[in-house]
From TrEMBL:
PANTHER family: 3-OXOACYL-[ACYL-CARRIER-PROTEIN] SYNTHASE, BETA-KETOACYL-[ACYL-CARRIER-PROTEIN] SYNTHASE III, CHLOROPLASTIC. It comes from Arenibacter aquaticus. HAMAP family: FabH (MF_01815). It is found in: Cytoplasm. SUPFAM superfamilies: Thiolase-like. NCBIfam families: fabH (TIGR00747), PRK09352.1 (NF006829). This is Beta-ketoacyl-[acyl-carrier-protein] synthase III. Belongs to the thiolase-like superfamily. FabH family. It catalyses: malonyl-[ACP] + acetyl-CoA + H(+) = 3-oxobutanoyl-[ACP] + CO2 + CoA. Homodimer. Residues 247-336 form the Beta-ketoacyl-[acyl-carrier-protein] synthase III C-terminal domain. The gene is fabH.
Length: 336
């Protein structure tokens, strides 16, 4: 078995900043409600027609991660792409990245798992590198939410929260034995699948020809649905459990954490976890204020920013944790 590590990170967000006040002009919401309940001040939205898609944003983030890892794009020997907002229903964006980066015909895998998508994708990359099958795996989390949100008062419970953006990492073989990804921990509980879901255009509902015939503008199954309070209650429990599970697996304790990078779902969730584990402000990284919840992109964007700001140093114990639709949740324990 080999060791694996993250050797390069990058992120990309669209230029277009959408503030809470901007949203209050198109739906019944306000800056005070959004900040108080979520911590979000602004998010980025792709401007329709400017060329950014889930794939192109992922490619931009990937180019930065590849350059920072010191490898050539042709050294990438596997691609993993996590998203809930793919450019096409099929094929998934992994193959589009292979095409757009112009790299040889390496394998490309698409991961779902929504807010936990990047943690799941990292776990897959980690296993491939540890077994020696691949040396440099490109892992991307990217989302274009804004085109699929209900930007009316009907959708305000969901649409004020989500933002667009992408993050990427190179997971490569690590020669030293005491550094790198120590372990990953994944869970699911499909019992609550519909509590945070976008039901259509799944094939389980109706024949596509019937859906097209109905052409019903009131059909909300095409829009994301979230039972916010129920998701919140589960999130705080599962976040805590999976962080403890990861620490225990490595004979570590909360006091050993140098930096916790939680999925950016809600600042109140991060603050709850911070308090529960007795961590200081400099031990938890939050950027939901600036980007909202970017689902599979949120951890790689936050991890990249934390690294760029010098908040993660060699030898640090870095913990990633996510919870979201599925429900799915997971953690990654890294000795940086
Ligand atoms: O990333 C995946 C995992 N996701 C999460 O972990 C999200 C977890 N959930 C949450 O973060 C919170 O539940 C939300 C931020 C989504 C909602 O906050 P909340 O404190 O649970 O509010 P609520 O849904 O109970 O709504 C409270 C009130 C309602 O009005 P009434 O019924 O009390 O009159 C809503 O209609 O706030 C109203 N409301 C809004 N008001 C202004 C809902 N959305 C908005 C809005 N602006 N955008």
């Amino acid at each position: 078995m080999f060791n694996s590590k993250i050797s390069g990170l990058g992120y990309y967000v669209p230029e277009n900043v959408v503030t809470n006040d901007d949203l209050s002009k198109i739906m019944d919401t306000n800056d005070a409600w959004i900040q108080e309940r979520t911590g979000i001040k602004e998010r980025r939205h792709v401007v329709q027609g400017d060329g950014d898609t889930t794939t192109t944003m992922g490619v931009k983030a990937a180019k930065i991660a590849i350059e920072r890892s010191g490898i050539d794009k042709d050294d990438v020997d596997f691609i993993i792409f996590a998203t809930l907002s793919p450019d096409y229903y099929f094929p998934g964006p992994g193959v589009l990245v292979q095409r757009d980066l112009g790299i040889k015909t390496v394998g490309a895998l698409d991961v779902r798992n929504q807010c936990s998508g990047f943690v799941y994708a990292l776990s897959v990359a980690d296993q491939y590198v540890k077994t020696g099958m691949y040396k440099n795996v490109l892992v991307i989390g990217s989302e274009l939410h804004s085109h699929g949100l209900d930007m009316t008062t009907r959708g305000r419970g969901v649409s004020v929260i989500f933002g667009d953006g992408a993050g990427a990492a190179i997971v490569c073989r690590e020669e030293s034995s005491d550094k790198g990804i120590l372990s990953t921990h994944l869970h699911s509980e499909g019992e609550h699948a519909e509590e945070l879901a976008l039901i259509a255009p799944g094939m389980g509902k109706r024949w596509v020809t019937d859906i097209l015939k109905d052409n019903d503008p009131e059909d909300a199954s095409y829009l994301p649905h979230m039972n916010g309070q129920f998701v919140f209650k589960n999130a705080v429990v599962r976040f805590s459990e999976v962080i403890i599970e990861g620490l225990k697996a490595n004979n570590l304790e909360a006091k050993d954490i140098d930096m916790l990078v939680p999925h950016q779902a809600n600042l109140r969730i991060s603050q709850f976890i911070q308090k529960k584990f007795g961590l200081g402000d400099d031990q938890v990284f939050n950027n939901i204020m600036n980007y909202g919840n970017t689902t599979a992109a949120s951890i790689p964007i936050a991890l990249t920013e934390a690294w760029e700001q010098g908040k993660i140093k060699s030898g640090d114990l870095v913990v990633l944790a996510a919870f979201g639709s599925g429900f799915t949740w997971g953690s990654v324990i890294i000795r940086w």
